[in-house]
Amino acid sequence: MRRGKLGADDPQLWLDYAKSDLALAKNGRKVAEVRMGALCFHAQQAAEKAIKALLIKSWVPFPKIHDIGELFQLLPTNFSPPPKVKEAAELSQFVEKGRYPLDFVDVEEKDYKKAVVQAETVVKWVEKVLRVG
To answer: What is the tens place of the pLDDT at every residue in 46-64?
Structure first.
């Protein structure tokens, strides 16, 4: 964990939070009572916070939204995500689907695994971009 001056305008702090959400998404499956939808929500949060770290690094203001596709559109052209990273826009479905009991029972195992991979892809890409940029 990073130490020192931390603030809401610190991209590394946002990335630290993204990694925390990713760890919850990946490791929560070990607890029987944890629903896969909740883990998918944390996967979505990991991707969202990682992208917001890049926006902060670029001094791009962003609204309080959770739509990953919209956040990708706010990125400067020099931070244009590759197609594999852009696939994570699908994670936006878990903002509500993963948190609330709506018109479904729960997320399927294959969807959970895909969500974790997508979130991990975004977090790793952002880490790389932040190191270079």
So the answer is: 999 999 999 999 999 888 8
Contact status, residue 106 vs residue 85, Cβ threshold 8 Å? no
Domain that holds residue 125: 11-132
Identify the pLDDT of residue 126: 97
Mind listing the pLDDT tens digit for each residue in 67-88? 999 999 999 998 889 999 999 9
Q: What b/e string do you get for 80-112 counting C-beta neighbours within 10 Å, with b at 16 or more?
A: ebeeebbbbbbbbebbebbeeeeeeeebeeebb
Q: Is residue 70 part of a domain?
A: yes
Total domains in the fold of the chain: 1
Give me the CATH number covering residue 30: 1.20.120.330
The answer to whether residue 6 is domain-embedded is no
